[in-house]
Amino acid sequence: MEQKFKLKNYMEDVVFSFLDELIRQKQVCTCERCRYDIAAIALNHLPAKYVVTDQGEVFAKTQLLSQQFKTDAVVELLRAIDIVRKNPYH
Predict the structure, then answer these.
(1) Which InterPro entries does UniProt cross-reference here (predicted)?
(2) Is 2 among the domain residues?
(3) Residue 55 vs residues 58, 62, 85: alpha-carbon distances, Å
(4) Are 5 and 52 in contact (CB under 8 A)?
(5) Can you tell me the mean pLDDT for 46-68?
């Protein structure tokens, strides 16, 4: 039986896990366009964490436990929120 693999940037999960709470705290537009603009800007400034196997995803999740890893994601999200707040595309 052939195993199917899927390439995934685990950093996307990290960004989206913090995104909505930070948007609420910073009182910025919650429309889908602004949410995705914020996520895209943040992801472009964070290192990609690609995984292929379930084992790789488990490894990436253990890195999430690192305080620096969380801090980096939150810092980039806050920077992206500020950019989108000043220049929304709607």
Answers:
(1) ComFB
(2) no
(3) 5, 11, 38
(4) yes
(5) 73
Number of domains in the chain: 1
pTM passes above 0.85: no
SS3 8: strand
Residue 47 CB partners (closer than 8 Å, separation 6+): 11
Instruction: State the pairing for strand pair 8-9/50-51.
Output: antiparallel
Q: Domain range spanning residue 63? A: 8-86
pLDDT of residue 27: 92
**Tokens standing for 38?**
């914020």
| pLDDT tens track for 7-27 | 888 889 889 999 999 999 999
The two tokens of residue 67 are 């305080």
What is the percentage of the chain residues whose pLDDT exceeds 90? 57
Q: For residue 62, what are its two tokens?
A: 């253990």
Q: Are 56 and 8 in contact (CB under 8 A)?
A: no
